[in-house]
Specification:
By secondary structure, the chain is of the alpha+beta class. The protein is built from 16 helices and 30 strands. The strands form four sheets. It has a 17-stranded antiparallel beta sheet that branches. Strands 1, 7, 8, 9 and 10 form a five-stranded mixed beta sheet that branches. The chain has a five-stranded mixed beta sheet with strand order 2-5-6-4-3. Helix 10 packs antiparallel against helix 12. The longest helix has 21 residues. The two termini are about 50 Å apart.
Length: about 750
């Protein structure tokens, strides 16, 4: 922001040398320069006719021994001769001063008492650092009326009481401390000269900050209010050296006389009125009016708001010039000029792509949250840019409007949206290795191509090798299919599972179409619908302690899910609630026994989040599940309900809660009950990134179809969360409160995101 203003009175921070001494130094320097110019003149110049009067100024001794002459008594005598020797006035148009004026003796300046106190180690603790005559007159007799506020151990402000009530005093002092070199550069090895120099810089910072808030006639004085040693400070408070460390505990007081706060007398916004019916609404978006106190911050922020309002209401090519502020000290006010060029109103046209074979304009239009013909909105264009980046297919990206039909006859024009894409690397090889209590070691690897079937058709091949699970599979996933954040997934895989509850060899084919919530577009309502075809050979423990016979199951399921999300964050919510319902009607046939039938699986989840203090969030979760329609023995073990583990009841092994057979292996059940309660406590460690989370969980599994609150197993523990920009990293340590035979004493869980 440029500002034109008249000069303000400023406090002087320097003391002056005695005039006689200054004159003497100047004369000696002048004589030496004359001598040097004659000595080092080029030979061609010396061959020219010399000036007799100039030669008379250079004695023979100066030529023979220049350095000795310049520092000796002869030089001083020569200077006096120069001053006292009359010069012929012929050839001069101005009369030479008479001898009487040259004979006037220059009186030395008396020492500054304030400076003498500063240099005197035995002087008072409060001593003036730098003080001008103007400031003395401004503050004389008024310091008893000033309010003093200590901003830190080093800095105190003194000011009239009315200044603290100007409305932004706290913001003013906070910004000053952030910019203060006394604070930001403080060190135990600081010399007194260094800190005095910093205090001078802080005085300038205060002066500039005061103009930000409209105080253009401010006077400021700084005072050294105590220091760590008695070493003398130079005449201007910084010239003389002092031992390292002597300034480390120096304290300064800044005395402010802010003067009147200037106001805006007039505001010029250029051609904003050319927007017609929109002008009043757009003018309200710039919430600065004539008569308001001058606030450069407010002007800057409101300029941004005006630019945003223009682009949000159909003016993609609007330009808002830099504010120009002209200050008039005669009226304690200023005028603001900030010309606006609206550039015409437009509607959305088509979306075009620079690489239609990679991501076509038609597909990008499906991603966009606007339709052709709607009034242009800058936020919709930015949302489209973020959505394209989220696909992971673009390394560089530019999204910009282009006028194709100009406004005419009061009707908006048409602006197409051009998308310039540079493809990103599309292939990824990934791997992971881990260990889970009750699940053993697990090694996973995958290869994927994120645009194998354009547009956004991903192919992924994956495999798992572990102590309890092996898998090989292929997945085709089409993102943004027929609409924004709608995903079609086809998954075919074969796996084997060896768990305490059962063994299974399974081939599965799954199709799912869903609407997802994402980090840039968290949705209040999500849904999913799918179809599963499963062929599985499974067996569980027999009553005599041996493994039972392997049985073959064929299962067809049509799962559907709906979810509501009123939380404030997808990965780390602090307020709100969530609820979801999974309903899966299924047909099952046991090919070994010939039994078959229909049943339904239903699981209801709910969670809530409530801030208890600024640092503590209370969180809770409930889950109920049921299977109705068939007896437990007619349901494949892999389709039953289980509890226990990091996403269930912490403190227990995976699937270890519920009925067990004679050898202590879980059998699963037809009903499920789970509760969880935790406090998420932010600490001050690692800049507030570390949280401590005490928690208690409970759960039960039963062979009946009705969820029960009896026979609950409880687990408790504590976890830590390290908050990153992609969500919290979670580590939980838990133990069972009422363990049963075979339950381990401690369980550890590691994952990304909160437990719920």
């Amino acid at each position: 922001m440029a500002a034109t203003r008249t000069a303000c009175p400023a406090a002087s921070g320097n003391t002056r040398r005695p005039r006689a001494e200054s004159r003497r130094v100047a004369l000696l320097g002048g004589a030496a320069m004359l001598w040097a110019s004659a000595l080092w003149a080029p030979s061609g110049a010396r061959a020219q006719e010399s000036d007799p009067e100039l030669e008379a100024l250079i004695p023979d001794g100066a030529v023979a021994d220049a350095e000795g002459w310049a520092t000796g008594a002869d030089a001083e005598s020569a200077v006096d001769d120069v001053v006292d020797t009359p010069i012929d006035e012929s050839g001069y148009t101005l009369a030479w001063p008479d001898d009487e004026r040259l004979a006037v003796e220059i009186e030395p300046v008396a020492p500054d008492p304030a400076l003498a106190e500063l240099l005197d180690p035995s002087g008072p603790e409060i001593a003036a650092d730098l003080r001008s005559a103007d400031m003395e007159s401004d503050f004389a007799g008024r310091e008893s009326d000033l309010v003093r506020t200590a901003l830190s151990d080093r800095i105190t402000l003194a000011f009239p009481e009315t200044f603290a009530r100007f409305g932004q005093f706290d913001n003013f002092t906070t910004r000053f401390l952030a910019l203060s070199t006394l604070e930001t550069l403080a060190d135990d090895d600081d010399t007194l000269a260094q800190v005095v120099n910093r205090a001078r810089a802080d005085q300038d910072v205060l002066a500039r900050l005061l103009t930000v808030y409209g105080f253009y006639d401010a006077d400021i004085r700084r005072e050294l209010a105590g220091r760590g040693g008695a070493e003398a400070v130079g005449t201007d408070g910084a010239d003389a050296p002092s031992p390292a460390g002597e300034g480390s505990d120096a304290r300064f007081r800044f005395v402010l006389e802010p003067g009147p706060r200037y106001r805006l007398m007039a505001i010029d916004l250029g051609a904003l009125d050319a927007t017609g019916a929109d002008s009043a609404m757009l003018r309200r978006s710039f919430a600065v009016e004539a008569g308001d106190p001058i606030d450069l911050d407010a002007i800057t922020f409101e300029r941004i708001d005006l630019q945003y309002a223009l682009t949000q209401n159909g003016y993609p090519f609007a330009e808002v010039a830099e504010p120009q502020l002209t200050i008039d000290h005669a009226v304690d006010g200023g005028t603001l000029s900030m010309p606006v060029a609206p550039g015409g109103k437009y509607r959305f046209g088509t979306v075009t792509s620079t690489d239609p074979d990679f991501l076509s304009g038609r597909h990008l239009a499906q991603i966009a949250r606007f339709k052709a013909g709607e009034t242009y909105r800058g936020s919709d264009v930015e949302d489209l840019r973020e959505a394209i980046l989220q696909t992971g297919l673009a390394s560089t990206l530019t999204v910009r409007p282009r006028a194709v039909v100009p406004p005419a006859d009061g009707e908006p024009g048409v602006a197409d949206i051009d998308v310039d894409i540079t493809p990103a690397p599309l292939r990824t090889i990934a791997g992971a290795i881990g260990y889970g209590t009750g699940q053993g070691f697990r090694l996973a690897a995958s290869w994927e191509h994120r645009n194998f079937f354009p547009p956004e058709g991903m192919l992924r091949l994956r495999g798992i090798a572990g102590t309890q699970e092996q898998l090989i599979g292929a997945t085709v996933r089409r993102n943004n299919f027929t609409g924004r954040d709608r995903v079609l997934t086809l998954d075919l895989f074969a796996n084997t599972i060896d768990r305490d509850a059962y063994e299974a060899r399974t081939i599965s084919a799954i199709a799912r179409y869903e609407r997802l919530s994402t980090l840039i577009f968290q949705k209040r309502f999500v849904w999913a619908a799918g179809l599963e075809l499963v062929a599985s050979q499974e067996r569980e423990g027999a009553l005599d302690g041996n493994l039972g016979p392997r049985e073959t199951y064929f299962v067809a399921a049509a799962p559907g899910r709906i979810g509501f999300d009123e939380s404030d964050d997808l990965l780390d919510p602090r307020r709100g609630w969530r609820a979801s319902l999974l309903l899966s009607p299924e047909f099952s046939r046991n090919n070994s026994t010939g039994s078959q039938g229909f049943y339904a699986r239903a699981i209801l989840d709910g969670s809530f989040y409530q801030p208890l203090t600024d640092r503590i969030v209370g969180a809770g979760r409930v889950r109920f599940g049921t299977i109705t329609g068939l007896g437990l023995s007619d349901i494949a073990p892999s389709r039953r309900l289980y509890a226990g583990g990091g996403g269930s009841v912490r403190g227990y092994g995976y699937q270890q809660i519920g009925p067990k057979d004679t050898i202590g292996d879980p059998t699963g059940g037809r009903s499920l009950t789970e509760f969880a309660l935790e406090a998420r406590v932010r600490t001050g460690l690692f800049d507030g990134a570390l949280s401590v989370v005490p928690f208690i969980d409970a759960g039960a599994v039963d062979t009946t179809t009705t969820p029960r609150l009896s026979d609950l197993q409880f687990g408790a523990g504590v976890g830590i969360r390290y908050h990153t920009n992609f969500g919290p990293l979670r580590v939980d340590l838990a133990t069972p409160i009422n363990p049963r035979p075979g339950d381990g004493p401690v369980a550890v869980y590691v994952s990304l995101g909160q437990a719920f």
